[in-house]
Amino acid sequence: MSVTFDIEPLSGCWPEIEAIGRAHWQETMEYYRGKQPYAPSYDRYNSYDKAGWLITFTARDSDTGQMIGYSLMYLVPSMHTQTMIATEDTIFLLPEYRRGRNGLRFHQFIEAELRERGAREIMVTAKPGSAACRLLEHIGFSVINHQYSKHLDAAEALQAA
């Protein structure tokens, strides 16, 4: 399967991103967010896009033009150092397109563009033990911390028991 990577205006591909995002939510995010519904806000993403802080990367099947993956990256100066940092909102490829080197090539495409735009650091997340972790470490990313999540409504229920 041949895949083409590009940067597209958010406004031109939002419906496709939202649809693929549902598959992403089901596969990777829902387990720690409890029963929270998938409800992205186009208006919020669009405001970041218009401010120049959001880059929309796409992956498309070269034969059909169908979107098969996407990444949204925020590129802003660090509040602490003023160094340009890129922070991942999401990176996702449909499972059937993860074979071969598509994931590697997508990350390389993203990194090259972020570097060209002045990024000096890229921050991404991945679920522990996942293939994404292995890929990230293979291409030079390092684990720098552990991220924790606490659902306050669940914690309150535990405290009341």
What does the model show?
The chain is of the alpha+beta class and 161 residues long. The chain has one domain: Aminopeptidase, CATH 3.40.630. It has five helices and five strands, in the order βααβββαβαα. The chain has helices at 10-29, 42-50, 102-116, 131-138, 152-160; strands spanning 3-7, 54-61, 67-77, 84-93, 121-123. A five-stranded mixed sheet has the order 1-2-3-4-5, sandwiched between helices. The radius of gyration is 17 Å and the shape is globular. The model has no long low-confidence stretch (mean pLDDT 88).
Provide keyphrases for this structure.
5-stranded mixed sheet, 5 helices, Aminopeptidase, alpha+beta, globular, 161 residues
Tell me what the CATH architecture is: 3-Layer(aba) Sandwich
Provide the CATH superfamily: Gcn5-related N-acetyltransferase (GNAT)
Give the number of DSSP strands: 5
Give the count of structural domains. 1
Q: CATH topology, what is it called?
A: Aminopeptidase
Question: What would you call the shape?
Answer: globular
Cα(first) to Cα(last) distance is 53 Å
Low-confidence stretches: none
Beta-strand fraction estimate:
15-25%
C-alpha Rg, in Å?
A: 17 Å
Q: Which helices and strands appear, and what pairs or packs with what?
A:
Elements: E1 3-7, H1 10-29, H2 42-50, E2 54-61, E3 67-77, E4 84-93, H3 102-116, E5 121-123, H4 131-138, H5 152-160
Parallel strand pairs: 4-5
Antiparallel strand pairs: 1-2, 2-3, 3-4
